[in-house]
Amino acid sequence: MPTITIKADKAADPTREALQAEQALTPGGVSLIDGDSLRQRGVSNLADMLRYTPGLWAAGGSTGDSVFLSSRGSNLDATNYDGNGMRMLQDGLPVSAADGNNHNRDVDPMSARYAIVARGANALTYGASTLGGAIDFITPTARDGAPNEVLVGAGSFGERQGRVTLGTVSGAFDGLVTAETRRYDGFRGHQQQERTSLYANGGWQLGDRVSTRVYLSAIDNDQELPGGLTRQQWLDNPRQGSAEAIAGDYQYNVKTWRLANKTVWDIDADSQLTVGLSVENQQLFHPIVYAPPFFSLLIDTEQRTVGSTVRYQRRMGAHDLLVGLNWAQTTVDGGNDSYTPGGARTRFAVVDNKADNLELFVMDRWQFAPNWTLVYGAQAVTTRREVATSNLEGDYDSLNPRVGLIRQLTPDAQLFANISRVYEAPTLYELEDETPGGPPNTLLDAMSGTVFEVGARGQKALGGGNRWNWDLAVYYTKLRNEILSRDDPTAPGTSLSINADDTVHAGVEAQVGGSFAMGHSGRHRLEPLVNLTLNHFRFRNDPLYGNNTLPAAPKLALRAEMIYRHASGFFAGPTLDVVSSRWADFANTYRVDSYTLWGLRAGFTAKDWEVFAEARNLGDKQYVSMFSVRDRAGANDAILTPGAPRSLYVGARLKF
Hints:
InterPro entries: Beta-barrel_TonB, Beta-barrel_TonB_sf, Plug_dom, Plug_dom_sf, TonB-dep_rcpt-like. Helices cover 5% and strands 58% of the residues. By secondary structure, it is mainly beta.
């Protein structure tokens, strides 16, 4: 008789299965990122991590960690210090401040086992009251199979980093700790960075149905800021630091620690209760404006955030009910100083700000017929802001309903649609900014609107081990009172915030990938991956800006790769970035050019080790990565942040 070989599938991963089920039960754009895949390419910030996530515009900034992040048109004011519009979570607990500032520099993508990105109103599952949605970073644990490992990496412009992870399981207890360090000299003047981090978690099984886990992280991140360049400076020498940044010794130094706990009680086979609490402290030292003898600014503050969440989920026949509550409070103390680099400081403004945020959300997933699921729910938000420097305080309240429909075409393919209300209150930073055109101490209005979305996702086996997958979403949002901040042309470094009457945010988000055998042996495969985002962000009959295009995000962003893989573990292939032109001002008079970048990555993966090399911008293209936004930008405005020139990154991973 012929020999019959039986191969076991890869061990089931309950965490991944739960996240995939969450994705399949959401009638809108949701993406799942596998942290293991990040170890086969250069990843130093969120822009690298989110490279193939549709609907997001993530651009690297002035240092390795600095990222401008926009999801479905959130955060288009492009003020680098105030990254709002996207709720950041770790294991379902908040990393964002209570006012919505997401502080994305304090999230290390390499410390996540998975990340799930819920775009726009699809973040109702997390109760997030933000325009752009939410990202939940799932921490690896020793109990779920995270290996002991060493990661080392190096790259152009003095980049070097290393991580060591050790874990253990002993009866009802498990623990995991990661120590990380990173150094970066930068391709521009005055761009050095030094970061050290510690991440740890420990879990206890308190019986058959109850488990609890404690999370601890500490980050010490010091980075120089090279400042913005004028267009002529960028053309002449994109590697230079601005004279103002060098003279003023611009920096962004943050010391952070965070302690969190999550307890899960499996009440019975159909119901679960989750309770979480987190405490975070950030100390910010931030010299950012130096224009003597007229004005200088050094921000020296301490921010404390307490967050909590309660989630109850119950399955009742054809219904899957979720009830949740999020509460958070952030206080910011300290002050704004005038300064001389390395010398005297004089406080001219005391910072004493506070934000509270309460979100109550209810959602039901009702499978009312075979292959049909109705998803409906609502979110109630009440939040308060107190800004001492502007003598402002006020409350914001809203009820945000949502209804969606999922049609399961096959076990692996579905159509979806939803109509939802989106809502976001202003951050403390936005309220601190001056508001032109109105009386003093006038509160900004919250942003709100209605979004319509349709789409499809799935995968299909083609025989012979071949397969392809797709994820497509099309959305249209009518938005009122969008908060837009722009640099004050009379006082560089000072922003002005306004509410725009009516704006439109619409777009197409698509990701297509696959794996295809070359020949009959199956030892050679091609794996293409394409992420395409088309944006349509505009004012709508604005009295000042008419129907101008909103700045910061491109109309088209395409990221792609074509990877050849051999059964031995070798892989290699080209990468491609195509980004259309963008406006840098609301008046649409200053255009930032489009660009196309080519790259190449390769590596080898074995059972217990892997190595990779990645070359970026092989054509050494001169391009602008991100920029500050103005009302009407002038030719001599120093607003441009150059993108990295030709560069090479290598890394290795050892599991033991």
